[in-house]
Write a structure and sequence with these properties.
- The structure holds 2 protein chains of 2 kinds.
- Chain A is built from no helices and 11 strands.
- By secondary structure, chain A is mostly beta strands.
- In chain A, strands 2, 4, 5, 6, 9, 10 and 11 form a 7-stranded mixed β-sheet that branches. A 4-stranded antiparallel β-sheet of chain A has the order 1-3-8-7, with no helix packed on it.
- In chain A, strand 4 and strand 5 form a beta hairpin.
- By secondary structure, chain B is mostly beta strands.
- In chain B, the strands form 2 sheets. In chain B, strands 1-9-8-3-4 form a 5-stranded mixed β-sheet, with no helix packed on it. Chain B has a 4-stranded antiparallel β-sheet with strand order 2-7-6-5, with no helix packed on it.
- In chain B, strand 5 and strand 6 form a beta hairpin.
- The radius of gyration of chain B is 13 Å and the shape is globular.
- The chains are: A mainly beta, B mainly beta.
- The interface between A and B is medium-sized, with 26 and 22 residues.
Chain lengths: ~110, ~110
């Protein structure tokens, strides 16, 4: 069974803290994605990676960075967390060719106080 | 970026067909139409996709208008497990083929 796992389901951090969200996939996919989901706004793409050490900005990259040192792992980093980064964060991995289906993890609900 | 428009919410009775509409009037000739759904407390999951012709799979059917400016996801017999938010997405096949643009989706409520 294909799987995308995220390091935490719930996380509470304080303003100014550095936050790491980790995502691991076991499907040998080249593409990995980080989205945030907010009520009324749907899913918005933060960053994506199409290969190890490769990354591209999505629609809302400000305040975030990413790291992909291994094919199966994609990390999202909040350098200095702010309250407006309180959100649900979803990781996905996907095929580079064919259907381009994306497989999502269960999400991390981050609260920044 | 190509945008889609969907109703915020729809309601259906269990075991009846459901037609979920999507407008995408700015679709380009190479954009694929994808549908995903998100069950409560889960990440989105793939439902179906198509380019020009109607498509069927075990989960649903996708009907695409001849001018491709709209499409309809058809659930043939809704069950309570189909209550979810359904997203209609355009995927470009050229420079942005890896990127999906999710809107707010349609929240489907299924009544027993």
């Amino acid at each position: 069974d294909v799987k995308v796992t995220q390091s935490s389901r719930y996380l509470v951090k304080r303003t100014g803290e550095k936050v790491f969200l980790e995502c691991v996939q076991d499907m040998d996919h080249e593409n990995m994605f980080w989205y945030r989901q907010d009520p009324g706004l749907g899913l918005r793409l933060i960053y994506f990676s199409y290969d190890v050490k490769m990354k591209e900005k999505g629609d809302i990259p400000e305040g975030y960075s990413v790291s992909r040192e291994k094919k199966e792992r994609f990390s999202l980093i909040l350098e200095s967390a702010s309250t407006n980064q309180t959100s649900m964060y979803l990781c996905a991995s996907g095929e580079r060719y064919g259907v381009y289906e994306q497989f999502f993890g269960p999400g991390t609900r981050l609260t920044v106080l | 970026d190509a945008k889609t428009t969907q109703p915020n919410s729809m309601e259906s009775n269990e075991e009846e067909p459901v037609h979920l509409p999507c407008n995408h009037s700015t679709i380009s000739g190479t954009d694929y139409i994808h549908w995903y759904r998100q069950l409560p407390s889960q990440g989105p999951e793939y439902v179906i996709h198509g380019l020009t012709s109607n498509v069927n799979n075990r989960m649903a059917s996708l009907a695409i208008a001849e001018d491709r400016k709209s499409s309809t996801l058809i659930l043939h017999r809704a069950t309570l497990r189909d209550a979810a938010v359904y997203y209609c997405i355009l995927r470009g096949s050229l420079y942005n083929f890896n990127k999906f643009y999710f809107g707010s989706g349609t929240k489907l409520n299924v009544k027993p």
